[in-house]
Amino acid sequence: xxxxxxxxxxxxxxxxxxxxxxxxxxxxxxxxxxxxxxxxxxxxxxxxxxxxxxxxxxxxxxxxxxxxxxxxxxxxxxxxxxxxxxxxxxxxxxxxxxxxxxxxxxxxxxxxxxxxxxxxxxxxxxxxxxxxxxxxxxxxxxxxxxxxxxxxxxxxxxxxxxxxxxxxxxxxxxxxxxxxxxxxxxxxxxxxxxxxxxxxxxxxxxxxxxxxxxxxxxxxxxxxxxxxxxxxxxxxxxxxxxxxxxxxxxxxxxxxxxxxxxxxxxxxxxxxxxxxxxxxxxxxxxxxxxxxxxxxxxxxxxxxxxxxxxxxxxxxxxxxxxxxxxxxxxxxxxxxxxxxxxxxxxxxxxxxxxxxxxxxxxxxxxxxxxxxxxxxxxxxxxxxxxxxxxxxxxxxxxxxxxxxxxxxxxxxxxxxxxxxxxxxxxx
Length: 427
Hints:
Blueprint: E1 9-14, E2 19-25, E3 33-38, H1 41-55, E4 60-64, H2 70-75, E5 81-85, H3 88-98, H4 106-119, H5 132-165, H6 167-173, H7 180-188, H8 192-197, H9 200-206, H10 219-232, H11 240-277, H12 281-285, H13 291-302, H14 312-318, E6 324-328, E7 331-335, H15 342-355, H16 360-371, H17 376-397, H18 403-413
Parallel strand pairs: 1-4, 4-5
Antiparallel strand pairs: 1-2, 2-3, 6-7
Helix pairs in contact: 5-6, 5-11, 5-13, 7-11, 13-15, 14-17, 15-17, 16-17
């Protein structure tokens, strides 16, 4: 195809940690120009200044394999650079088609990126940064999710160490393993032996005094009984190396979990602050099951640029919720779409699962699919697929979701999803 005349040049950037291989191609053909750019503010600024002066500030198309990171953040501040991020698999398949031997080098990859962009501009979407609030929400919600996963891993490891050396702690703190008082107690007494050697005054200070149910004995009696039980509790093992290792692990794991707890809490405060300022905050908060956790993630997924997606199908494909169909001759297969932003796909999948408790038609859809014998994860993806169309239309029209209005529409079309869950036929 004819290269897009709006671009003065096409640049391929093969990202590396310290230096990037660069290839520049003229739009009308010609020999490629290879070079390098250092991953430093000075190196990037000098290279960009040279491009601006050479092409008189006309747009320059840049192709690279990432949509975020140090290089993208450095380049996005220059208005004449039009960034075109592509999936690494696209470059890998393009390279394999031209070089079946598997030969690879950074300068060659930079040239392939430039050629791919120049010859297939219509297949690569130009990257447009979202507004600062949306970008902040996206980065902060992703970071929160990562820290929550880290906390789960650390808590599981702590539980395992306690089972091996300190089961006494699990007897009265297992159900609140991540609570602040319990973690502080483990930091103070990281082994059963140290807890048993603590004075009554210390134990009174650190152990909880609250009654669990109304007919429990008085709090003081509960505390005395608990101290007596601690004194009598036998150790699960007397092996020195095991106990020494467990003591070290328990104390530090407790500290690490407390640190992650504070980080997650700070993230949540920042998310609340950003979401309160987001122009579409009320819109996404109106969806059943969105809540404080999912509504900011939905807002970050769509952003505020209404031209970002032409229709719901683009979002369904980009997020990986829409399946991939492969047909050849008499063979046709439908499979999950793997080439997508994983956190984005996870956002819609988790929102669909949360909506089942709060939306009548969503519950009816799940019950109907279960009755057909479909697998649960497939059902949730199908529900997410339906929600994306609704989310897209509400977002496009700047209109909050109304469950009653949607149910009336379902009734008008005669769909079974308009029935209550108990009314949905099983066949």
